[in-house]
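Here is the promised in-class demo. Please do not try to memorize the tokens; focus on the logic of going from shape to residues.
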């Protein structure tokens, strides 16, 4: 893969993680603000934003170890986002939106896992 394609994929993933965080924010605007959801809301807004923020940190890293560490954090935060999404109380109206966010977080988690596996296989 040439450098331009690698850069495009990196920025596509940056866009995708940004859209995940933004989509999560929009989903959270639609949920009931009961005592449970308020606490999960806070955790979810942090973890979904952290996926995007840590990817930016990874792409700007100075070493392979730092890059790998940040990608691991991205994977962890995506997995954590799934937990909070599952714990939030939803209605029939908000369930599809929640499920779409769970699907995206799952896909992101798998992408980060694949990046780590590729690094491991290539001894990077």
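The designed amino acids, position by position:
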């Amino acid at each position: 893969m040439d450098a331009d394609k690698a850069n495009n994929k990196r920025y596509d993933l940056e866009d995708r993680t940004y859209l995940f965080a933004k989509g999560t924010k929009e989903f959270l605007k639609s949920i009931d603000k009961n005592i449970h959801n308020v606490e999960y809301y806070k955790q979810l807004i942090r973890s979904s934003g952290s996926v995007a923020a840590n990817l930016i940190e990874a792409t700007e890293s100075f070493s392979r170890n730092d890059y790998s560490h940040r990608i691991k954090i991205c994977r962890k935060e995506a997995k954590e986002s799934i937990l909070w999404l599952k714990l939030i109380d939803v209605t029939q109206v908000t369930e599809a939106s929640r499920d779409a966010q769970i699907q995206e977080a799952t896909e992101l988690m798998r992408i980060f896992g694949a990046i780590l596996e590729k690094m491991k296989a290539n001894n990077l």
